Amino acid sequence: MKPGKPLRRYARLERSTPLTGGTPLKRTPLRARSKKQEAKYRIRRGLVAELLAERPVCERCHMARSTDVHEPRMRSRGADITDRRECVCLCRDCHNHVHAHPAEATREGWLIPSWEDLAECGAHPASAACPGCTACKRCGPCGCELVAGWQQRTPA
After folding, report:
1. CA angle 121, 123, 129 (to 5 degrees)
2. Rg of the chain over CA atoms, in angstroms?
3. Torsion angle, alpha carbons of 93, 97, 99, 103, to 10
4. Three-state secondary structure readout of the chain
């Protein structure tokens, strides 16, 4: 085709058959979730309400009110959405930040890869565990720290 003027249609487009009212398509609406999944989400709704009442402050920034329940090991990575040990309460900004910056969130432990083992608590990555006693340092002081603190407080 030679470069030059744009193509031009000489004949007007017309339908060969007229549009008719016809019968409308019968569509069955899709269920949002399967019955099995809906049963899990019924349990989850209660769990979310309990967790947000127990942990009113964001566990990441420790400033804002927690509004979202986040699973560090996401559902797509094999997390159980009804296990309270696998849930963390975050504010909306922190939750958005975690999902917007997955590499940083993984380094900080807010996202756990599916191949990484979990600490003894079952909620945090193994990298958060104490090398001496394998207890999770994020869930509280580990046994090593408690023993060391007790030994420092007691006279020899």
Report:
1. 55
2. 28
3. -160
4. CCCCCCCCCCCCCCCCCCCCCCCCCCCCCCCCCCHHHHHHHHHHHHHHHHHHHHCCECCCCCCCECCEEECCCCHHHCCCCCCHHHCEEECHHHHHHHHHCHHHHHHHCCCCCCCCCECCCCCCEHHHECCCCCCECCCCCCHHHHHHHHHHHCCC
Model-level pTM? Answer: 0.58
Q: How many CA atoms lie within 13 A of 81 on its CB side?
A: 14
106-148: pLDDT as tens digits = 888 888 887 776 666 665 666 666 666 666 666 666 656 554 5
Residue appearing with tokens 């797509």: 76
Kindly report, residue by residue over 38-76, the tens digit of the pLDDT.
898 899 999 999 999 999 999 999 999 999 999 888 777
Instruction: Kindly provide the b/e burial profile for residues 21-54, where b requires at least 16 CB atoms within 10 angstroms of the residue's own CB.
Output: eeeeeeeeeeeeeeeeeeeeeeebeebbeeeeee
